[in-house]
Structures are given as structure tokens and as C-alpha cells.
Amino acid sequence: MKEVADRLNAVADHLDEHAPAMDQRMVDMWSGEGITRHDPVTGPENAIAPPLHLTGKDDGSVEGEVALGLPYQGPPGHVHGGISALLLDHTLGVANHWAGQSGMTAELTLRYHRPTPLFEPLTVTGEQVAVDGRKIRTTGAITARGEVCVSAEGLFIAKHLPRPR
Ligand SMILES: CCCCCCCC/C=C\CCCCCCCC(=O)SCCNC(=O)CCNC(=O)[C@H](O)C(C)(C)COP(=O)(O)OP(=O)(O)OC[C@H]1O[C@@H](n2cnc3c(N)ncnc32)[C@H](O)[C@@H]1OP(=O)(O)O
């Protein structure tokens, strides 16, 4: 293991030496497609993203499928509750974008109905249900084998932080 660790550390050092400065990386990250490349849920450029592939549906909702492995484990053989919250926060946010009115999470209420299994296909859904001025209400769920494991209700407030330039 030490030899493997040494090799990985050498690769990490090499990448650090050749990476642009952090402020430049921030500008690059937020150019073009921006968050969809680097976010921690769907982003192919983010090592901690499972990644979940979300698709916008004609009815205005979004849906994706993902199977989660060991890095996301909480209870034995099951998904950590914070990871479920991460997936749902993001999926509700994407549902808002898909519906045309987006914002920042002000409240996220989760109900954990049953343990969410690792290694099995999970369906993650999100749907905007109401917009009242700057307040956006959005719901979603994670299901496995057709049963709801986690359901979510979110309040988002229309606010957008500036992209780094
Ligand atoms: C499938 C195809 C896809 C295509 C599209 C793909 C593109 C996808 C692109 C991108 C997807 C991105 C997805 C990201 C998802 C992740 C989102 C996050 O995790 S965001 C980070 C966590 N959230 C924060 O850090 C917020 C921190 N809090 C704040 O900044 C503020 O507190 C904020 C914005 C929440 C509100 O602050 P104020 O100053 O702007 O607004 P005030 O005036 O305080 O409130 C406005 C109204 O909202 C109510 N309000 C505010 N906060 C509330 C709360 N917590 N509970 C209840 N009401 C609240 C207030 O009472 C007020 O209501 P009255 O107008 O008076 O009726």
C-alpha cells in the first residue's frame, strides 16, 4: 500500500505543479457550461460526483438514475443520509432550472422513509411545484425498486451569485 500511496502522491504533486492558479481555475470552471461540468452531483469533472445523469422531461420535471458505491455508505450497505440530501438538493435545483425559475436553497426538508440501498439503481426525481414572487417550491424523491426511500420538499429563493471573472 505504501508504494501505491507514493505513486498516487507523486501524481497529485505533478498535477498541483501544473495546475493554473486557483483564481484562474475558478474563472475557467464557470465559463461555458459552468456548473454542469464541475458540480458534486452530476459533474463529470468532479471526482466526488457519482455522477448522476439528469434528464429534463416534457412534463417539466427532471429524472435520473444512479447506483452509489462504497464512498457514499452510511449505515451498513446503505446510502449516507447526507449524500441523499446532496443528491436531492441538487436535483431540485436542476428541476428549477429546467422549469425556468431558479434560486438558492433556503430550506430543504427531507423524510427518510426507508434505508436507501447501495449498489442498486436509484431513481432521483425533482419537480417545481409553485413560484410565488422570489419563493420557489420544489419537491423530489429517491426511489429504489419502485419504493420511495427519501422524499424532499425545498424552498428556494430567486438569487444568483456572480460568476468569477
Ligand atoms: C435536466 C436538464 C438540465 C438543464 C439545466 C441544467 C443547468 C443546471 C444548472 C444549475 C443547477 C444548480 C443546482 C444547484 C442546486 C444547489 C443549490 C444550493 O445548494 S444553494 C447553496 C445553499 N444555499 C445557500 O447558501 C443560501 C444562503 N442563504 C441566502 O443566501 C439567503 O438567506 C437567501 C437567498 C435564502 C434569502 O435571502 P435574500 O436576502 O435574498 O431574501 P430575503 O429578502 O431574506 O427573503 C425573500 C423572501 O423569502 C423568505 N425566506 C427567505 N429565507 C427563508 C427561509 N429559510 N425560510 C422561509 N422563508 C424564507 C423571506 O421571508 C422573504 O419572504 P417575503 O418576500 O417577505 O414574503
How is this structure best described in words?
- The structure is a single chain.
- The N and C termini lie far apart (42 Å).
- The protein has 165 residues and is of the alpha+beta class.
- A hairpin with a 2-residue loop joins strand 5 (135-144) and strand 6 (147-157).
- The protein is 29% helix and 30% strand.
- The chain has a domain at 52-157: Thiol Ester Dehydrase, Chain A.
- Bound molecules: ligand 3VV.
- Ligand 3VV binds at residues 35-36, 54-56, 62, 89-90, 93-94, 97-98, 104-107, 133-135, 155, 157, 159.
- It is found in: Cell projection, Ruffle membrane; Cytoplasm; Membrane.
Give descriptors for this structure:
165 residues, alpha+beta, Thiol Ester Dehydrase, Chain A, six-stranded antiparallel beta sheet, 30% strand, binds ligand 3VV, fatty acid metabolism, cell membrane, RHA1_ro05818_N, Acyl-coenzyme A thioesterase THEM4, transit peptide
CATH structural class of the domain at 52-157: Alpha Beta
| Residues in helices, as a percent range | 25-40%
Residue stretches low in confidence (pLDDT < 50, at least 5 long) are none
Strand order of the largest sheet: 1-2-4-5-6-3
EC number: 3.1.2.2
GO cellular component, one term: cytoplasm
Membrane topology: Peripheral membrane protein
InterPro entries: HotDog_dom_sf (IPR029069), RHA1_ro05818_N (IPR048654), THEM4/THEM5_acyl-CoA_thioest (IPR052365), Thioestr_dom (IPR006683)
In short:
With 165 residues, the chain is an alpha+beta fold. The protein contains 4 helices and 6 strands. It has a 6-stranded antiparallel sheet, with helices on one face.
